[in-house]
Design a protein that fits this description.
Blueprint: H1 9-17, H2 25-34, E1 39-43, H3 51-64, E2 76-80, H4 87-106, E3 110-115, H5 129-141, E4 145-149, H6 157-166, E5 173-178, H7 185-191, H8 199-206, E6 211-214, H9 223-238
Parallel strand pairs: 1-2, 3-4, 3-5, 5-6
Helix pairs in contact: 2-3, 4-5
Length: about 240
């Protein structure tokens, strides 16, 4: 049996407005325990081990420490980590992204990726480091790759443009892609929107590039990325 859950209140509220009832992980785990399941695997679909993945870790811990339901202590719960859980994951995802965009960067296009990131006070698990690691791994494959975020201090769009200028990347075409599981509000508005502070608008305002294109597609649409999530599930179950 498979159940889909959100850690984001915004996602749950928007789904509820459409009549789609998705709930928080704590709700599902309690219901699953009460229904008598003895083995559960929770697979994160987050990208980094950041604030929202910490919520999932705490939910699993609280489930086993639930004083109202001591019988839950006998339920086996496996937790599969986010996409970029380890440095090896970063390397593997960089290779997958390069396979996807190789023809673009080798044609002298600049390909940028928008991650979410955490504000510094919420940078649990050192998740923000995955974005700088990802840019470094991608640039080993081609210097036309860059990675920035919506919410990571010192790694916003203007910081990335400064890195591009320092690397003498001041012309040609730019392609922007979300470094997120799904292409939602951030991809459509913060990346591809028409407001002055969107990535598209800021690249255009710099007047350094011939064209700016945005691709509204999440990482979850890439088959090889899907298989990495599945591999995390298997690794979690094999490890215990």
């Amino acid at each position: 049996d498979i159940y889909f859950s959100f850690t984001s209140e915004i996602c749950m509220t928007r789904c509820a407005a459409k009549g789609w009832n998705y709930y928080a992980p704590s709700f599902y785990l309690e219901a699953i325990g009460l229904a008598g399941y003895k083995t559960v695997c929770v697979q994160s679909l987050h990208v980094i081990p950041g604030e929202e993945f910490l919520r999932v870790q705490n939910v699993v811990k609280d489930f086993h420490n639930d004083g109202e339901h001591p019988e839950f202590a006998n339920v086996k719960v496996y937790l599969g980590g986010p996409l970029l859980e380890t440095e090896e994951d970063v390397t593997n995802v960089a290779k997958i992204l390069h396979e996807t965009y190789k023809s673009k960067v080798e044609s002298n296009n600049i390909v940028t990726f928008m991650g979410h990131g955490n504000p510094e006070n919420y940078n649990y698990g050192n998740g923000n480091s995955r974005y700088t690691m990802m840019e470094a791994e991608l640039q080993k494959l081609n210097s036309n790759y860059f990675v920035a975020t919506v919410d990571m201090e010192d790694n916003y769009i203007d910081d990335m443009i400064s890195r591009m200028q320092a690397a003498n990347k001041k012309s040609g075409n730019v392609i922007c892609h979300p470094l997120m599981s799904i292409a939602g509000d951030h991809a459509n508005n913060d990346m591809a929107g028409d407001d002055d502070d969107s990535w598209k608008s800021q690249f255009e305002a710099s007047k350094n590039f011939d064209s700016v294109k945005t691709q509204i597609a999440g990482l979850g649409e890439i088959d090889a990325i899907q298989q990495l999530y599945v591999a995390h599930t298997k690794a979690a179950m094999d490890a215990q």
